Amino acid sequence: MTIAEDLLRPSPEFEDIEYPSGDLESQEPPLESYLHLQQLLLLLKCLDWLWKDKQDYFAAGNLTIYYSPNQKKSEYFRGPDFFVVLDTERKPRKSWVVWEEGGKYPHVIVELLSNSTAQVDRTTKKQIYQDIFRTLEYFWFDPNSLEFEGFELVKGQYQTIKPNDKGWFWSEQLQLFLGVYEQKLRFFSLEGVLVPTPEESAQIEKQQREATEQQLEMEQQRNQKLAARLRELGVDPDTL
């Protein structure tokens, strides 16, 4: 029996319980630490802000994915720390129920490593995401040690994604780089521009607005000085 098969065995006490469609709550426990929570929220905020005009994706964190072929809640479920499903309706969900979503699995998964989960994230979950979910891209990141790895599905097997000279990994699915910036996992555009949070975006706009206002004020002061100099020379600047 493979690792994946062993972990996919249903719990006997729940084996025969059937649940109504659309009524599956997420079963995921709290994240390992506040640092892990911060990282999860950061990924969600940045992607949702970048894609605020898109309506064809679903991104979530610490949410249960149910994938039982028998459509039972007690069988076959996993809860990635962060995942993205493309070409689907953007709407709130209590969980991701594969059999209610046209058989779709996440296109991208990110696991946040911790002392209690790292071994499973690197082995068992990696195998499940490769062999069962067929998730096209899998990344893991440790918010404490900053360990960061990326994999892409090639002919049914995960192959390590080659990082660029900054240590970032390109996500073909998201059309974004993932890389470590100020000890946090962040998204970057193809051109290497940091994908901001809404707060960072507002701050950038404020700085740009202030810079524009300062430039206009400096130009106005120069024009006033020039007009004063012309008047000293007996020239009316309004006639020029």
Automatic annotation (TrEMBL):
UniProt keyword list: Coiled coil
Keyword Coiled coil: yes
A Pfam entry, by short name: Uma2
Every Putative restriction endonuclease domain range: 12-174
PANTHER family per UniProt: SLR1095 PROTEIN, SLR1612 PROTEIN
Gene3D superfamilies on file: tt1808, chain A
Any coiled-coil regions, as ranges: 201-236
The protein's name in its UniProt record: Putative restriction endonuclease domain-containing protein
InterPro entries with a match to the protein in the record: Nuclease_put_TT1808, Restrct_endonuc-II-like, Uma2
Top-level division of the source organism's lineage: Bacteria
Species for this entry: Limnoraphis robusta CS-951
